[in-house]
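Fluoride-specific ion channel FluC
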Amino acid sequence: MPRAFNPARGKHTGIMIKVLLLIAGGAIGSALRYGVSTWVQKAMLYSFPFGILSVNVIGSFLIGFCWSLAEAFSFSPNTRAFLFTGLFGGFTTFSSFTLDTLTLMRTGEYKLALINIFASNILGLLAVFLGLLLGKNTLTLIK
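Predicted structure tokens:
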């Protein structure tokens, strides 16, 4: 017996396609981040994290470049999801942060842009510190 038409089924299919695009983009971006950062770090032979720095700068450049193309050529929501959330999100979350900050600046929200810069960096460092501290204390309790 044929199923009755269900318009909601099409909506769920669209969401699943977007989720699969996010997963694919994230996987590709993460693999690229690993490859690029490892290659750069080995090539530099210094303890400074040049690998991650290069990924952050490259990702920031690429997200800006691709965003301008997305605006000029009206990329579809699925293409934008694949690129900006998936691929660049997997490659570097720093690129999303820089795009958001630049968007605030372009709309004249300079105060919010500065707050975003300081809050993201200071709170991010604090969160890493607290996470490391909690992790060490948890390991001490487990042992």
